[in-house]
Design goal:
There is one protein chain. This protein is mainly β and 120 residues long. 0% of the residues lie in helices and 61% in strands. The strands form two sheets. Strands 2, 4, 5, 6, 9, 10 and 11 form a seven-stranded mixed sheet that branches. A hairpin with a 3-residue loop joins strand 9 and strand 10. It starts with a strand and ends with a strand.
């Protein structure tokens, strides 16, 4: 069994900051790429940022320069530091991880999501 548990969402005013965390637990061999996605009401889920096991990062243009993804491999945790938040950042944020498990192989796993609401 593998679990991804996000935390850190909430309500913040425009221009404010939040830090999301996602902890991976369970029986795993390794965690490869990790990422954050988001889904706003009435819209499709979109990719926000990714980080490889080696620490290389990439970002959607809409968040570049404002959001920072990082990870702590010892804690099986990925973070998303969100600064200069805008109302259009309002969404449910989901953690994604590509995980290798013994006897299962490698596949993507998702967290349950955490709500981020930015008021104008």
């Amino acid at each position: 069994q593998v679990q991804l548990v996000e935390s850190g969402g909430g309500l913040v005013q425009a221009g404010g900051s939040l830090r999301l965390s996602c902890v991976v637990s369970g029986s795993i061999v390794s965690i490869n790429d990790m990422a954050w996605y988001r889904q706003a009401p009435g819209k499709q889920r979109e990719w926000v940022a990714s980080i490889t096991s080696g620490g290389s990062t990439s970002y959607a243009d809409s968040v570049k320069g404002r959001f920072t993804i990082s990870r702590d491999n010892a804690k099986n945790t990925v973070y998303l530091q969100m600064n200069s938040l805008k109302p259009e950042d309002t969404a449910v944020y989901y953690c994604n991880a590509r995980i290798t498990r013994r006897f299962v192989g490698t596949r993507d796993y998702w967290g349950q999501g955490t709500q981020v609401t930015v008021s104008s």
